[in-house]
Write a structure and sequence with these properties.
424 residues; 5% strand; three-stranded antiparallel beta sheet; elongated; Znf_B-box; 10 helices; zinc ion binding; zinc; ubiquitin protein ligase activity; Znf-RING_euk; mainly alpha
C-alpha cells in the first residue's frame, strides 16, 4: 500500500516539477533579455540612463556620439529605442543607472555558479541520495522505482565519509598495480608495431619500384613496336606509291588523249589533222610503253602485316614482357623476299636445339649425372648463338646481293625499252 502511494506521488509530482523547472529557465532567459543592451546585445556594462528612462552601455553611447564630435555645436542625443532627444555634454555627463548595474552584477555572479547535478532520467531532479547498494548517486524519484527496490540508501555526508576511505584503498591499489610489467609489455608492443610498419613500408617500396620498372619496360617496348610499325608504313608506301603514282599518271594521260581525239576527229584540214594525229600517236606510244606492275611482286608485303597478332602476347608472364619481339626489324621493300626465309631457318635451328636439349636433359636426369653434361649444353648454346649470327649475316648478304641484282636488272630493262622506242 505504501509503495502504491509513493508511485502515485511520483506521477503527481514529476509533471509539476518539470513545469517548474521549465518556468525557471524561461524566467532566467527573460531576465537576461531585460539586462541586455539593445545596441551591443550584451549584458549592460556601466549603464547610463537617458531622459526617456532607456539605458545603454557607456561605450555604446560614446560610439553614437563619435559622429558629432567635429560639429561646431553639440547636437542632442537621440535615443536608439524611442528617438527622444537628450541634451548632453558627453557620455560621462549622463546619469549612471546604479540599480541596473547592481542587478547585472548579481545576475553575472549567479550565472557563473556551478550548476547542481541533476538526474538524466528525471528532468530537473537533483542527485541528493546515494545508493549504497549500487554505489551511485540517484534522485528521489529513482529511489521509488523498481530498479532500486530493497536497496540501502544514505545521505551524501555519510556516503562521503565512507567513499573517502574506499578512495584511499583504491588509491593504494592503483599505486601497487603492475606498472613495470605493463610498461615493458607496452614497449614490446610498440617495438613490434614499429618493425612491422617498417617491413610493410619496405614491401611497399619494393612493389612500387617493381611496377615502376615494369611500366617503364612496357612503355619502352610499346614505343619500340610502334616505331617499328611506323617504319613498316614507310616500307609499304615505298612499295606501292611509285606504281600507284605511275598508273594514275597513265590514266590521266589516257583521258587527255581521248579528249584530243574527240577534238580533231571532225577536222577536215589535212595539215591540221596530220599535226594532231602526230601528237595523238605520241600519247598513245607513251600509254603503250607503260608497263603494268606485277602484283605478285608485293605479296611478301601483305604477310608482314597480317602475321602480326598481339593476342600471342597473352601467354607471356609479367617478367617476360621485355622478351616481346618487335613485329619487324630493319625490314625494307627490296629485302622482303630474303628476309622471309631467314626467320624460318632460325626457327628450325631453334627447334632442333630445343629437342636436343630436352633429350640430353632426360638422359641426364635418368643417369643422375647432370654436372657431366653442363659443358655439352654450354657448347650447344654457343653453337646455336653462332649459327643464329651466321644466318643473320647470310640473310643480310643475300639481301644486299638481291637488291644490287634487282637494280641492275631494272637498269638493263629500262635501257632496252628506250633503245627499241628510239628506233621504232
Amino acid at each position: 500500500m505504501r509503495q502504491e502511494q509513493e508511485a502515485a506521488l511520483t506521477r503527481q509530482r514529476h509533471p509539476v516539477d518539470k513545469r517548474e523547472r521549465v518556468s525557471q529557465l524561461d524566467a532566467m532567459e527573460q531576465l537576461e533579455e531585460e539586462l541586455t543592451c539593445p545596441i551591443c546585445c550584451c549584458l549592460f556594462e556601466d549603464p547610463r540612463v537617458l531622459l526617456c528612462s532607456h539605458s545603454f552601455c557607456k561605450k555604446c553611447l560614446e560610439g553614437l556620439l563619435e559622429g558629432s564630435r567635429g560639429l561646431a555645436f553639440r547636437t542632442p542625443l537621440k535615443c536608439p529605442t524611442c528617438r527622444k532627444e537628450t541634451p548632453h555634454n558627453g557620455a560621462n555627463s549622463l546619469q549612471i543607472n546604479y540599480s541596473l548595474r547592481g542587478i547585472v552584477e548579481k545576475y553575472s555572479k549567479i550565472r557563473v555558479l556551478p550548476k547542481m547535478s541533476v538526474c538524466k532520467q528525471h528532468l530537473g531532479q537533483p542527485l541528493n541520495i546515494f545508493c549504497a547498494t549500487d554505489l551511485k548517486l540517484i534522485c528521489g524519484f529513482c529511489a521509488t522505482t523498481e530498479q532500486h527496490r530493497g536497496h540501502r540508501f544514505s545521505s551524501l555526508e555519510d556516503a562521503f565519509e565512507r567513499e573517502k576511505e574506499c578512495f584511499e584503498e583504491l588509491q593504494r591499489g592503483v599505486q601497487s598495480w603492475q606498472s613495470a610489467d605493463i610498461l615493458s609489455c607496452l614497449e614490446s608492443l610498440q617495438d613490434g608495431k614499429k618493425k612491422a610498419l617498417q617491413s610493410v613500408s619496405r614491401d611497399a617500396e619494393e612493389v612500387t619500384d617493381y611496377f615502376d620498372k615494369l611500366i617503364s619496360t612496357i612503355d619502352c617496348k610499346k614505343n619500340e613496336i610502334l616505331s617499328d610499325l611506323e617504319t613498316l608504313k614507310l616500307v609499304v608506301m615505298q612499295a606501292y606509291d611509285p606504281d600507284i603514282t605511275r598508273l594514275g599518271a597513265a590514266l590521266e594521260e589516257r583521258e587527255r588523249a581521248l579528249c584530243l581525239a574527240e577534238s580533231f576527229k571532225s577536222i577536215t584540214d589535212p595539215l591540221c589533222f596530220l599535226q594532231q594525229m602526230q601528237e595523238f600517236r605520241a600519247k598513245f606510244r607513251i600509254l603503250r610503253e607503260t608497263l603494268l606492275p606485277d602484283c605478285k611482286d608485293k605479296d611478301h608485303i601483305g604477310p608482314l602485316v597480317r602475321n602480326f597478332d598481339v593476342k600471342k602476347w597473352d601467354s607471356l608472364r609479367l617478367r617476360e614482357v621485355d622478351k616481346i619481339s618487335v613485329p619487324h626489324e630493319k625490314v625494307s621493300y627490296r629485302a622482303g623476299c630474303a628476309r622471309a626465309t631467314a626467320p624460318k631457318a632460325i626457327a628450325l635451328c631453334a627447334r632442333l636445339c630445343v629437342a636436343v636439349a630436352l633429350l640430353l636433359g632426360t638422359h641426364v636426369l635418368a643417369a643422375s649425372a647432370q654436372l657431366r653434361y653442363e659443358p655439352v649444353l654450354e657448347a650447344l648454346t654457343s653453337r646455336f648463338c653462332q649459327s643464329t649470327e651466321f644466318l643473320r649475316d647470310l640473310a643480310s648478304s643475300s639481301t644486299s646481293l638481291l637488291s644490287v641484282g634487282q637494280q641492275y636488272f631494272i637498269s638493263i630493262v629500262d635501257s632496252t625499252v628506250k633503245f627499241f622506242s628510239f628506233y621504232h
